[in-house]
Prior knowledge:
The protein is mainly α. It has two domains: 9-103, no CATH class; 106-138, no CATH class. It is built from six helices and no strands. The protein has helices spanning 9-18, 22-27, 30-51, 57-65, 76-98, 100-103. Helix 1 packs antiparallel against helix 5 (76-98) and helix 3 runs antiparallel to helix 5. It is elongated and about 65 Å long.
Amino acid sequence: MRVAPGVRPVLAAVLSVLQPGLGHVYLRAWPRTLLWVGLWLGSLGLIVTTAGIELTTGDAVAAAFGVFAATEGFPLEAVLSMLTVTALATLDAYLLAGRRDRWHDAEMPQCPHCRKDLDPALDFCHWCTFSLEREGSA
C-alpha cells in the first residue's frame, strides 16, 4: 500500500487520537480504517455491556463521543481496552504516514502535473493523462 505524497504523520496521529480510524481515513488506508473503527466500536460495546448501560438509538451517538468524559463508573478493564485501541490506532497511523518517505523511490520519474509516479514506458501520465515530452522524441 502506498501513502499519498505530502501526508503529515503528526496530523494522522492527532486525528486518530480524536477518533481511532480517522487518521487512517486521512491516509486513505480503507481496510485499516475499518479495522480500527471496528475495534473501537467493539471496545465501546464492552464498556456499554459491562457497565449495564441501556442505550436508545439517540443515546448511542452521544455515548460514543462522550465515553471518555464519563468513564468514572465504568470497569477498569473496559476503559483500558478503549485507551489501548486508541493508542495503538494512533501509533499505527503515525507509522503508516511515516513510511511515505521510505516507499517513495527517488529514481522513479514523477508527472510534472500531478506529481505521481510515472510508468517510464508511456508518453503520458496514466494518473492524469498529462502528455509528456520525452528526450529524443520527435
